[in-house]
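We now fix the convention by which a protein and its fold are recorded. The integers have meaning only within a learned vocabulary of local backbone shapes. A complete example follows; check for yourself that the lines match position by position.
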Amino acid sequence: MRAALVVAAVGMLGVACAPQGVVADARTVDMCTILTDAELSKLGVRPDTRETVDQFGSVGCEWVGKPVRFSLERDKETVASYRTRPRGPSFITFTENAVNGRAGLTFAVDRDGGTDCEQLMDGGSVSLVVHVASTLSPDGHRIDSCPEALRIAQLIEPRLPRAS
């Protein structure tokens, strides 16, 4: 999870709509290999740009492309702990939601003229995070980072552990 997104926080817009259920513990999920190179390419990033992320209790990988840069991470904080965190003025939205029926939340932060968005999913003792930052596309337009983060989360959610 990006520290600036986590620390920067107040101003909450939220709707409780995510179903609450028991999920399997996802603390061993490798977010760096959950998508294939072909899937990464299809999402608009270059697999060879992969960089390891390991900061502030969040571990995963980041990829770069046009018109998007994103990371997939496993965060030591739970979705429940993010619900109770204070949020700062850079937060644009903070909303509880669900990804394929799995409890989650999404938040967006204004950054450098664009919007960074994070989609969190419940992983039991951890949260699983899709972070999307819009970059300029070849035609000069930015993608909408929150729908893109949700789309990526919906792609990886079926691969996450489920409670038996």
Remarks:
- The first strand starts at residue 45 and ends at 55.
- Residues 1-20 have pLDDT under 50 and may be disordered.
- The first helix runs from residue 3 to 7.
- Helices lie at 3-7, 37-42, 79-83, 145-156.
